[in-house]
Design a protein that fits this description.
The protein is α/β, with parallel strands linked by helices and 465 residues long. The protein is built from 15 helices and 17 strands. Its EC number is 3.5.4.3.
Length: 465
């Protein structure tokens, strides 16, 4: 009886009269339906209006003219790059890194916090409810960068995975970053473990989780890769890194390790259901088979791949093989818009330039990548990524009755192929964080001023060397 009383006392929000794309296993959709939120969970989803006898309804939203979807899930980003947008615009990956590492190596705690605020704010106002940040630059004396990033996500109200990155291969060891911007093997492992113990929450409705995330094969020693994987599994957290992004990386791995990236990852313990890789552009059939066999996930970043001329990932083949695939913004120094909802459209369009042409990906497939696929990749598909009873109340209401979309009969096609749709409301854990395209949890104008000031300070600091 006590449990029943507690359930009836739960505050409910009712959303009605909207089109709904649940992105569940059957792709269930409703032309006009309802969603009931009870606390931080989805209580019911269905056609027509909500039941009339619901107790403790504190809010009813008439969502006529809207499409409801799961919140978007960003699986790969580098928040700190918000401060270096618009630089090195005509470079490939390695030249871009060489151009920007000297500036990135000067980042400090206030810069990291401001950049995280800017990155998260831009994503959240565009429908992202879960985000991952791969932060791998930890210059000596820079302060608590991980804590600054986690604090920004907490204050903004976005569900968050910090991929605590690391590098131990500096210029003197043949790497690209300056030596003072890398850590020793022991320091990187110790700091990563401390970050997991301080910030990782394994609970079902966790707002913050941490992954172990050495940067890439060309900036990390084999020992850091191997021991990083062992650390993650000892602590029970996920693993993340960059993989098979460019032809130059493929060449580097063959020259240094005598094998391609996928074989190298497997040799160091970096394939498995608890692993996701960013990019995975240059993969052959055996690479894809290895990812499928081990359940290794992929963060597909179409805009960044195009910006850096990296190539077109074989997303249709990855999906056909059963590889979990989500979408990523990537760092805003290679995707200046910083928005994930644009990646729905770009994933569809860019993949249709590949071998599969018009059969590569459709609008609903693109939406699945940006929602359920991303939740799979982050290990949270049981909790979010689709609108189903019992899942966390992470969802977005997209306005579809304005000039930009009103003549498109199919709301999912309108969302994916049309102009960026206005976000009328975005909920994370049952809490509304966006209303009519504006953030409710932070002052957007103040964030804009802070990021501008910190970007200028970073540029001055880097110029002084």
């Amino acid at each position: 009886m006590a449990a029943m009383a507690a359930a009836s006392a739960t505050e409910r929000t009712v959303i009605e009269n909207c089109a709904i794309a649940t992105v569940d296993a059957g792709g269930t959709e409703y032309a006009s339906g309802h969603i009931v939120l009870a606390g931080n969970r989805i209580e019911s989803v269905g056609a027509g209006g909500a039941p009339e006898d619901l107790a403790n309804v504190v809010r009813r939203i008439d969502a006529t003219g809207h499409l409801a979807t799961p919140g978007l899930v960003n699986t790969h980003h580098h928040f700190y790059q918000w401060l270096t947008r618009g630089l090195a615009t005509d470079h490939n990956l390695f030249d871009w890194l060489v151009a920007l590492y000297p500036t990135w190596a000067r980042i400090d705690e206030p810069m990291a916090h401001a950049a995280a605020q800017g990155s998260l704010a831009m994503m959240a106002r565009g429908g992202v409810t879960t985000a991952a940040d791969h932060h791998y630059i930890h210059p000596r004396g820079a302060g608590d960068l991980s804590g600054a990033i986690v604090r920004a996500a907490r204050d903004l109200g976005v569900r968050f995975t910090l991929a605590r990155g690391s590098m131990d291969r500096g210029e003197s060891d043949g790497g690209l970053p300056p030596d003072f911007a890398v850590e020793s093997l022991d320091d990187a492992l110790a700091a990563t473990e401390a970050t997991v113990r301080e910030h990782h929450d394994p609970s079902f409705d966790a707002m913050t989780r941490v992954a172990v995330a050495p940067c890439s094969p060309f900036s990390v020693s084999t020992e850091l890769m191997r021991q990083g994987a062992e650390l993650a599994r000892r602590l029970g957290v996920r693993l993340h890194t960059h993989g098979s992004e460019t032809v130059e990386e493929e060449k580097f791995c063959h020259e240094l390790f005598g094998m391609g990236p996928t074989d190298y990852f497997e040799s160091t313990g970096w394939l498995g259901e608890d692993v996701w890789m960013a990019h995975c552009v240059h993969m052959n059939d055996s690479d894809i088979a290895a990812f499928a066999r081990t359940g290794t996930g992929v963060a597909h970043c179409p805009s960044s791949n195009a910006r850096l001329a990296a190539g077109i990932a074989r997303v249709p083949d990855l999906l056909a093989a059963g590889v979990p695939v989500g979408l990523g913004v990537d760092g805003t120094a290679s995707n200046e818009s910083g928005e994930l909802h644009t990646e729905l459209r770009n994933a569809l369009l860019i993949n249709r330039l590949g071998a599969h042409r018009e059969a590569a990906l459709n609008a609903r497939g693109a939406l699945r990548l940006g929602t359920y696929g991303g939740a799979q990749v982050l290990g949270r598909a049981a909790e979010t990524g689709s609108l189903e009873p019992g899942k966390l109340a992470d969802l977005v209401l997209w306005r579809m009755d304005t000039l930009a979309h009103s003549s498109i009969a199919d709301p999912v096609a309108a969302l994916v192929l049309g102009a960026p749709a206005p976000v009328t409301a975005s909920f994370v854990n049952g809490r509304q964080i966006v209303e009519d395209g504006r953030l409710l949890t932070v002052d957007e104008d103040a964030v804009a001023r802070s990021t501008r000031d910190e970007a200028r300070r970073l540029a001055r600091t880097a110029a002084r060397g």
